[in-house]
Design brief:
Helices cover 48% and strands 17% of the residues. The chain has 14 helices and 10 strands. It has helices at 12-23, 34-39, 41-45, 65-77, 92-104, 118-124, 162-179, 181-188, 197-214, 229-241, 248-265, 271-285, 295-301, 332-344, and strands at 6-8, 28-33, 51-56, 85-90, 110-115, 129-134, 137-144, 149-152, 313-318, 324-330. It has 345 residues and is α/β, with parallel strands linked by helices. Helix 6 packs parallel to helix 9 (197-214) and helix 7 packs across helix 9 (197-214). The radius of gyration is 20 Å and the shape is globular. The chain has 2 domains: 6-159, 3-Layer(aba) Sandwich (Rossmann fold), CATH 3.40.50.1970; 163-344, Dehydroquinate synthase-like - alpha domain (Dehydroquinate synthase-like, alpha domain), CATH 1.20.1090.10. The strands form 3 sheets. A 6-stranded parallel β-sheet has the order 1-8-5-4-2-3, sandwiched between helices. The chain has a two-stranded antiparallel sheet with strand order 6-7. A two-stranded antiparallel sheet has the order 9-10. Bound molecules: nicotinamide-adenine-dinucleotide and zinc ion. Residues 171, 229, 248, 252 line the site of zinc ion (ZN). Zinc ion (ZN) binds at residues 171, 229, 248, 252.
Length: 345
């Protein structure tokens, strides 16, 4: 079962119209970026009561205070009171930032998330984490708040660029690897173009919600959602600092393979399963170029992870398929070796 405020639908316009009719908001404002305005807004436009639209430029580099000021100003110009609502129609950038703006405007008005990327549908739009980047710190300023409604419609994925779809797919793969062997078998039977998105989004959201329900503030179990992210984030930072930015999911895909190797070293994953995982992920994502002399630097970047304690890298690792463990000490040498495995597989 999905939580009450999360609906998966193939008719978002009707569901949204019904929800809004019932809520009787004083005003509705819709937040889009230039891509979701043309690709997604027409799908819901006719079902909306009188509303205004705020369009901001897409991109992580716009997820900052300056853009928030533009959004708050638009809300103020529209004279939104505390009974108004914001509809956020976009990917994770818009969801995090729009939800943050709504949650802080006049101490908080309702917001409705309509995620339009796979990453946002399967991951970012549930869990209540909202916020923006600050200087060089990612998601540095923010709050926890749940949307009034999250509307999931896989039809929006049709216009999503393939590299963005693939990036979000890494999180779906991660969810399957740590939650459900059967789901993993279903996924690996198909390439990216032939996945059953409705089922994968539903299973991803259901799993993420079940974890968060047990550990909302990431004291223990929720840490398993960071599987693939200890090495993955380090790889992402490495590419960012070498001026060669890659998408988050591309780094996480590589991280899942590397951490799979570390899980193998720690007797948590057998060799056959590791090969199965590595082969499938590489088939979909290809291989990132990681020069041998960069491997110690990448390992050192993992020391900066927020989840560490002191100078020890603590990560979550999958245990077989369908389970994960957390707060596992990972040495620099293990990370370097795991990257060598990735390189040479
Ligand atoms: N809150 C959380 O729990 C959580 C979890 C994971 C990630 N995030 C955040 O999510 C953000 C990344 O989100 P993202 O990957 O969705 O990227 P994004 O929001 O930048 O969207 C990617 C690109 O796709 C475009 N786009 C979106 N939907 C489209 C559609 N249907 N058709 C065509 N183009 C479309 C966007 O305009 C953008 O150019 C990061 O800022 C990250 O911090 C948050
Ligand atoms: Zn991630």
């Amino acid at each position: 079962m999905l939580p009450e405020n999360v609906l998966l639908t193939n008719d978002p316009a009707t569901v949204l119209a019904q929800f809004l009719a019932q809520k009787k908001y004083s005003k509705v404002i819709v937040l889009v970026d230039e891509h979701t305005k043309t690709a997604c807004y027409p799908t819901i436009e006719k079902s909306l009561p009188a509303h205004s639209v705020v369009t901001i430029q897409s991109g992580e580099e716009r997820k900052n205070l300056t853009t928030c000021e533009t959004i708050w100003q638009a809300m103020t110009d529209e004279k939104l009171d505390r009974h108004a609502a914001m509809i956020v129609l976009g990917g994770g950038v818009l969801g995090d930032m729009g939800g943050f703006c709504a949650s802080t405007y006049k101490r908080g008005i309702d917001f409705i998330l309509i995620p339009t990327t796979l990453l946002a549908q399967a991951d970012a739009s549930v869990g209540g984490k909202l916020g923006i980047d600050f200087n060089n710190f990612k998601n540095h300023i923010g709050v926890f708040k749940q949307p009034a409604l999250t509307l999931l419609y896989s039809g929006f994925l049709k216009t999503l660029p393939r590299n963005e779809l693939r990036s979000g797919f890494a999180e779906v793969v991660k969810h399957a690897l740590i939650s459900d062997k059967k789901l993993w078998d279903e996924i690996r039977a198909n390439d990216l173009e032939h996945q059953n998105w409705d089922r994968l989004i539903e299973e991803s959201v259901r799993f993420k919600c079940s974890v968060i329900e047990k550990d909302p503030f990431e004291k223990n179990l929720r840490k398993i959602l960071n599987t693939g992210h200890t090495v993955g984030h380090a790889i992402e930072s490495y590419f960012l600092s070498s001026g060669n930015k890659i998408l988050h999911g591309e780094a996480i895909a590589a991280g899942l393979i590397a951490e799979g190797w570390i899980a193998g070293r720690k007797k948590l994953l057998d060799e056959k399963l590791l090969s199965e995982i590595a082969a499938y992920i590489l088939k979909i994502f290809g291989k990132l170029p990681l020069p041998e002399n960069a491997l110690p630097d990448i390992a050192a970047l993992a020391l900066q992870d927020k989840k560490n304690k002191g100078n020890v890298v603590l990560g979550a690792l999958q245990e077989g398929i369908g389970k994960a463990v957390w707060d596992i000490e990972i040495s620099q040498e293990e990370i370097i070796e795991s990257l060598r495995f990735y390189q040479s597989y």
